[in-house]
Here is the input.
Amino acid sequence: MNRLRLVLLTVGGAGLAALLVAACLRLPDFGGRRHPYGDRAVHASLSRHTANTIASVNFDQRAYDTLGEMSILFAAVLGCVVLLRQAGDERRARPEPAEVARPVRRYALLVLPVALLTGLYVIAHGQLSPGGGFQGGVVAATALHLLYLGADYRALERVRPLGVYETTDSLAVAAYLVLGTAGVLAGTAFLANTLLPYGTFNTLSSGGTVPLLNAAIGMEVASAAVVLLAHFLDQAVEIEETTGERTEGAHER
Amino acid sequence: MSDALTVVVLVLVAAAATAAVAQRDPARQALVLSFLGVLLAALFTVLQAPDVGLSQLAVGSALTPLLIMLSVRKVRRRGRSKEGPE
Amino acid sequence: MHVLPYLIAAYIFLTGCYGLATSRNLIHAVGCLAVCQSATYVLLLAVGYRDGGTAPVFSDMRPGSRPVVDPVVQALTLTDIVVGATVTALLLALVLQIAKRHGTIDPDELRELRG
Here is the structure.
C-alpha cells in the first residue's frame, strides 16, 4: 500500500515536473521589456493621482477583485471562529502567569507602541509609499500581541475585547460595500473611482476613493488577524477538555 | 551585480523551502518557515516589490509561524491531559 | 538566468507537494502547503520583473524617469499572501477539530479510523 503510494507520487511528480519545466521554457524571459498590462496600470494610476501604483491596482483598477479577496478573508475568519469556539465538553482553565525574563518584558513593552504606530502609519500611507491596508493591518494586529510577552494573557484580554474586533471586522466589510454602492448611486459603476476629486498628487488625500477603501481593508485585516490570533491563543492557553467524557464521545462518531 | 544577487537569494529561498519540508517536527518547521518568510521578503525586495516584501515579512515570518506554534501547543497539551489521568 | 526564477518556483512547488503527500502530521502538512503557496509568489513576481526596473511607487521619483516593474502581478501577490495566511488559519482550525474528535493528527491513523 505504502509503496504503491510512493510509486504513484513519483510518477505524478515526475510528470508534473516535466510539464512545469516545459511551461517555464516557453514563458517570456525573466526581466523582459514587454509588460503591456503593467504599463497601462501605471498610466491609469498616474492619471488618477495615486503615487503607489499597487494601491491603485488593488483599490481602484481591480477593486472588484479585492472585494472577492476580502470576502475570502471574512469567510475564513468566520469559519475559524465557528470551529474554535468553546464546545460544551470544554472548560476554561485559568493559566498561571508564566515567568518571562525581565529584559524580554521590557523590550516587548518598549517595542509595542512603536510597532503599533508603524502598522497604523503603513495603513495610512498606503496610496503613497509601499504599504497599505493589507500589510499595516497585519503589523498592527501582531504588534498588539507583544503584550502577551510583555505583561500576561489577562492584560492582553483586557485591551482586546473580542466582540469589538468582531464587530469592527464586519463593519469594515460593510464600509467597503457601501463605498462601492455609493459609486452606483452617484450614477457610475460599482466601486468605480469617480466619487471623490483625485486631489493633489502625492498627498494623503489623493487618489479619490483609494484611501477610503484602503482604510476599510486595513480595519478589516487588523481586526481579522486579532480575532484569529485570539481564538488560537484561547485554544492553546485556556480551553481544556473535561477528561473522561471525551473518550466515549470520540467513539460515538 | 543585481543579477548575481537575485540568483543567490533565489537559491537560498529554494534551500529554505527544502529545509521547511524536510523538517518533520511541526514546531521546528514553524521556525524554518519563519526563516523562509524573511528570505522571501528579501527576494521580493530584490525583485523591486517592496509592498509584497512588507506583506510577506508580516505574514510569512510572524503570523503563520505563530498560528502553527499555537496549534502545536494545543495538540501537545491535549495529548498530555489525555494521558495524564489514565 | 532567463528561466532560472521560473524553475526555482516550480522546484519549490514540487517540494511542497512532496512534503504534503508524505506528511505524517497534519500540522506539518499545512506548513508544506504554505511552502507551495510561496512558489506562486515567486512565479508571479518573476513574471513581472523588468531588467533595471524599479518599484512602481512614484512618491519619490518623477513618473517616466525610470522603467518600473509590473505592478499588476505585485498587487495579485499581495492579496494572495494575506488571503493565504487566513486560509492557513482555517486549515489549522480544522486540524484542531480533527485532533479533538479523533485524538490523532496522523493522516494514516485517521484513514484506519474511517475504515
